[in-house]
Amino acid sequence: QVQLVESGGGLVQAGGSLRLSCVASGRTFSNYHMAWFRQAPGKEREFVAAISRSGSSTIQSDSEKDRFSMSRDNAKNTVYLQMNSLQPEDTAVYYCAAKAGPYSSRLAAYDYWGQGTQVTVSS
Q1: First to last CA, the chain
Q2: How far apart (Å, rounded) are the C-alpha atoms in residues 123 and 115?
Q3: Angle at 33 between CA 6 and CA 29, to 5 degrees
Q4: Does 47 score more than 70 pLDDT?
């Protein structure tokens, strides 16, 4: 099973930035489409961003596309989520996910998940 480990979460003030990282095990990382989801307290898990296998194409949720960006480094088996201008409503556990097929915003399309990393944004 693919192992995904997120890091980079923490506590930041509103307007600050964080860069989340997700490291995948194995030597077939480039075969997987990757995504970030988040889940706020009492809310359903929601899509944040996704990236193609080569990293040439990305999609972001409409509400976050001006503030968040996703990238990948296949040589390091790592994907990133750069988050700028963070707001309290961004507070959530952020999850890295992987799938073998085309990238998607659908939670159910992803087969492998990391343990999550907490992002807390104070006012």
Answers
A1: 39
A2: 26
A3: 65
A4: yes
